[in-house]
Design goal:
Strand order of the largest sheet: 1-2-3-4-8-7-6-5
Order of helices and strands: HHHHHEEEEEEEHHEHH
Shape: globular
Number of strands: 8
Structural class: alpha+beta
Number of helices: 9
Low-confidence stretches: 1-20, 38-43, 45-52
Radius of gyration: 20 Å
Mean pLDDT: 81
Number of domains: 2
Helix content: 25-40%
Strand content: 15-25%
């Protein structure tokens, strides 16, 4: 998915003039006070907000910087202070960053990012996933992912539904697991066959066929990387009620 900021603004000169005027209004008073570096920072932040209103470029850029193994301090420089922190046990904790377009969850062990997940919360928000033929999150069914699928986890209750699976990327994984998933509160939260897969997984009967059906029909709304297990990732997931509460309090 590609967006052209330049072409949009060129086709709409009045809008471009409004953006320039807005940025000038923000920066000139600060420059007048002699704090040029702060003015540059304000202009960059204001520019990102404006661009973010009609493309997803700023968010995609930030998320592209996420890596397993980076320090917690470095992640903080990109995403700021997490709005919520939760202890998961065994030295693992989860930190949550709420955005109106996505939820970023970092799994922290020591002072290092041991894993992370990104959940799209808005239709059309499709950050690149594993360089999968240049398509983004939610733009292809799970069955289209190359290679044999790894282990999976499924859960189904009255209020929440979860499907997570490990993605086999071969040598590019570097001792960490790639994963894709579907949550009932993420973007395009339509799924067929998950309840049946959950019931068959409990009994151990017919789960292979049920999983093939789910993978053929499901477009992921969550992706991630980590040196963590699927069970640990599941422990970090918020319930729909929790997400709704935090978004109303913290989203941008």
């Amino acid at each position: 998915m590609f967006f052209s900021v330049k072409s949009d603004s060129d086709q709409n000169p009045p809008f471009r003039k409004k953006v320039v005027a807005f940025l000038a209004a923000v920066s000139l008073p600060v420059i007048a006070l002699g704090t040029f570096s702060e003015a540059v920072m304000l202009v960059e932040q204001a520019s990102d907000r404006v661009v973010s209103s009609f493309t997803h470029f700023p968010e995609y850029k930030d998320l592209s910087l996420m890596r397993v193994g980076i320090s917690r301090d470095y992640a903080g420089k990109v995403f700021g202070v997490p709005q919520v922190h939760r202890e998961l046990g065994s030295g693992l904790s989860a930190e949550y960053y709420f955005n109106s377009k996505y939820l970023l969850t970092m799994l922290i062990r020591g002072n290092e990012v041991a894993g992370y997940t990104v959940t799209s919360l808005r239709d059309g928000f499709a950050p690149p996933v594993f360089d999968h033929e240049a398509r983004g999150l939610g733009e292809f069914p799970l069955a289209d992912v190359p290679g044999e699928p790894g282990g999976f986890l499924v859960d189904w209750t009255k209020t929440s539904a979860v499907y997570l699976e490990e993605v086999n990327l071969g040598g590019s994984s570097l001792n960490q697991s790639a994963l894709l998933g579907w949550l009932n509160y993420g973007a395009s939260a339509v799924n067929e066959g998950l309840a049946e897969l959950y019931r068959s997984a409990l009994t151990g009967e017919g789960s292979t066929e049920r999983r093939q059906t789910v993978r053929a029909l499901t477009h992921a709304n969550l992706y991630g990387w980590g040196r963590v297990t699927l069970t640990e990732v599941q422990a970090s997931l918020l319930s729909p009620a929790e997400l709704g509460h935090y978004l109303s309090a913290y989203h941008n």
